[in-house]
Amino acid sequence: MPALLLFRIAGRRLALPLDTVRNVAPVPLLRRPVGAPPFVEGFFDFQGEPVAAIRPDRLLDLEEEDLGIYAPLLVLGGAARGIALHVARIDQVMRVDDAAIQPIGDDATLNACVIGRISHGGETIYLLSASR
């Protein structure tokens, strides 16, 4: 039964496997390189490593959201080490049965980042792949 971290971006409920999230951090001073794509907010130092702060709403071509000063960064690990997602808010940690996750084909998702969906409380939660 995987544990998922549920969060919101652009009015959508999204999730990542909890074991892919190294840390939840406040947004530090970011340094945006000249010519960086619009979804890259900038870079910061996290425990001695450079990390890119990414806006998922821009990356996934969703309606851009005004993120306040308290909107957290999800610092990713594993294959996505060096990336942090700037999200609107964190909702909860939830355990789900593998059978509750409906797979989604690569061609039917937001930039091939969504690997499944879960129905919960009348809402659809889209499960993201951190490595994609």
Structural topology:
Elements: E1 3-9, E2 12-17, E3 21-25, E4 40-46, E5 49-54, H1 56-59, E6 73-76, E7 83-86, E8 89-95, E9 102-103, E10 114-120, E11 123-128
Parallel strand pairs: 2-11, 5-7
Antiparallel strand pairs: 1-2, 1-8, 3-6, 4-5, 6-7, 9-10, 10-11
Biggest β-sheet: strands ordered side by side in the sheet:
8-1-2-11-10-9
Helix count equals: 1
Largest β-sheet summary: 6 strands, mixed
Distance between the termini: 22 Å
Rg, nearest Å: 14 Å
The portion of residues forming beta strands comes to over 45%
Order of helices and strands: EEEEEHEEEEEE
Low-confidence stretches: none
Which structural class best describes the helix and strand composition?
A: mainly beta
- Assign an overall shape: globular
How much helicity do the residues have?
under 10%
Number of strands: 11
Mean pLDDT: 89
How does this model look, in words?
This protein is mainly beta. Helix content is 3%, strand content 46%. The protein contains one helix and eleven strands. The protein has one helix at 56-59, and strands at 3-9, 12-17, 21-25, 40-46, 49-54, 73-76, 83-86, 89-95, 102-103, 114-120, 123-128. The strands form two sheets. The protein has a six-stranded mixed sheet with strand order 8-1-2-11-10-9, with no helix packed on it. The protein has a five-stranded mixed sheet with strand order 3-6-7-5-4. The longest helix is centred in the middle third of the chain and has 4 residues, at 56-59. The chain is globular.
